[in-house]
Description:
Rossmann fold; 2 domains; 8-stranded mixed beta sheet; 16 helices
Amino acid sequence: xxxxxxxxxxxxxxxxxxxxxxxxxxxxxxxxxxxxxxxxxxxxxxxxxxxxxxxxxxxxxxxxxxxxxxxxxxxxxxxxxxxxxxxxxxxxxxxxxxxxxxxxxxxxxxxxxxxxxxxxxxxxxxxxxxxxxxxxxxxxxxxxxxxxxxxxxxxxxxxxxxxxxxxxxxxxxxxxxxxxxxxxxxxxxxxxxxxxxxxxxxxxxxxxxxxxxxxxxxxxxxxxxxxxxxxxxxxxxxxxxxxxxxxxxxxxxxxxxxxxxxxxxxxxxxxxxxxxxxxxxxxxxxxxxxxxxxxxxxxxxxxxxxxxxxxxxxxxxxxxxxxxxxxxxxxxxxxxxxxxxxxxxxxxxxxxxxxxxxxxxxxxxxxxxxxxxxxxxxxxxxxxxxxxxxxx
Length: 392
């Protein structure tokens, strides 16, 4: 099968969050399963407006086509692409494509590329990745976009792949507001995945401990962009309230305007370590070196960082907004209200009970293996692709 993935950003633009890792994981697993995969994206690298130089390259058997942003600062400040020549590129390659899989909904890429796919009767799938909700940022812009542009895009989408049941319901409701189409849009739920083979604690933990002076202290890991809906300010307050003297809190991620306030909240506490954005082995080292993963977020789709933490064998402490309720049932961690007292209580329990941490971490690893391995996710996607090809 020949699959074209359309995304505003792709490897190595990891600073834009979990969508990049999700698309990479899907594409890599599909190539392993014998499919021909092309990524059509832009040259955006990070929120500082930096660009990726290569306009075309092959990464792990995946053909990656990048088109330059005319206004990279608009990409950085407003999360909007301005890709030059993307429509022309799409028109050249769409005749040789079986399926178009678009990532995120309100994008200029979708406006430019989906009309051509529709004309050629190429089935169009959409993975919103938790971006449908107006409460995840830029609410006014999204509202205006939905009024002016979203109905036309939605009419072209054949299948929406939600991460959770909640996102599926959200998508179905939104699509109804856009009006009906000749061939009804289908909806299904397929979660995010994780690469289970990349985590080797024995190799990376020791070097990371030394670099950040963690000693052998039990360490809580936050990994994500430093923005309000991730709840990192709440986590700092909860960590302080837990009052475990020898513990550490490691805050990993690129700043999106909150860092000065977070540093003020930490108030020079030497137990709270800010690393900034980490990539490659340094990022994996953080997962290897820490003992607990915590994310009191709201409005998440399904955080890749939490799945990676489970794959690394870390017990996870999450809010309901992470949409990983199965963590509780599997005994892989705790899902509690995004409140200081609730997070402090569970942090204290996990940080002071090494045997519990080990047992819960083992369950977390098993849950990742059984439910979130990328090869299993890719197989489910194949079935959706095939169903669309059979009905087109």
